[in-house]
TrEMBL record:
PANTHER family: NUCLEOREDOXIN-LIKE PROTEIN 1 (PTHR47109:SF1). GO terms for cellular component: mitochondrion. Pfam families: Thioredoxin_8. PROSITE patterns: THIOREDOXIN_2. This is NXNL1 protein. GO terms for biological process: photoreceptor cell maintenance. Residues 1-142 form the Thioredoxin domain.
Length: 206
């Protein structure tokens, strides 16, 4: 996937760092499903969809929701009118997002290459750059994180250690306190197991 961005510059979200060397791009992009998010902070449909995409991304990559981050990377390709608008939008999005720098002509090249005519649009790519889904906006809205399984299979990425820490079907109904509740549940189960173990040891010694 890094080949798509050879000689190009990507920005790390909320930082001035540039991800531009082949080695850095390879580490950031290779062996991962790549989402190209074409959007704008001013677009009403984007403002409606972006929080959903943010939640979708976090539930697949954030340690609160998964045991280990999925093989997923997102690059924001903006249609914002100013650099300030782009920066303001990205500040509300996950830190792991990457972005094509504001004013970079490469944005137009990507729009033409993937036939993006309107926003929001989410192009899903295999690690080798082949298109899995031309625009996954509707799929993400309808299926939530469950659609990543389909993309993972289509991209032929084998990652048996990747498990969602929750039921896919309930993702949209979960509250922000769920990770805390799940952590407490895990701790309670560990305490319960230790108590049972001590009790059995006591019975054996008596």
């Amino acid at each position: 996937m890094a080949a798509l961005f050879t000689g190009k510059v990507l920005m790390a979200n909320r930082e001035r760092d540039e991800v531009e060397t082949e080695r850095e791009l390879g580490r950031a992009l290779d062996n991962k499903v790549l989402l190209l998010y074409f959007g704008s902070g001013r677009c009403p449909r984007c403002r409606q969809f972006s929080p959903l995409l943010k939640d979708f991304f976090l539930r697949l990559t954030d340690e609160f929701y998964v045991e280990r981050a999925s093989q997923l990377v997102l690059v924001y390709v903006s249609r914002d009118e100013t650099e300030e608008e782009q920066s303001a939008f990205l500040r509300t999005m996950p830190k792991r997002w990457l972005a094509v720098p504001f004013g970079d002509a490469f944005k137009r090249e990507l729009e033409l290459r993937f036939a993006v005519s309107e926003v929001p649009a989410v192009v899903v790519l295999k690690p080798n750059g082949e298109v899995i889904v031309g625009n996954a906006v509707e799929e993400i809205q309808r299926m939530g994180p469950a659609c990543f399984r389909n993309w993972q299979e289509a991209a032929e990425l084998v990652d048996r250690n990747f498990l969602l820490a929750e039921d896919f079907e309930d993702w949209s109904r979960r509250s922000i306190t769920d990770p805390i509740r799940r952590l407490k549940y895990k701790l309670d189960k560990k305490t319960e197991a230790k108590t049972k173990e001590r009790k059995e040891e006591g019975e054996e010694s008596s």
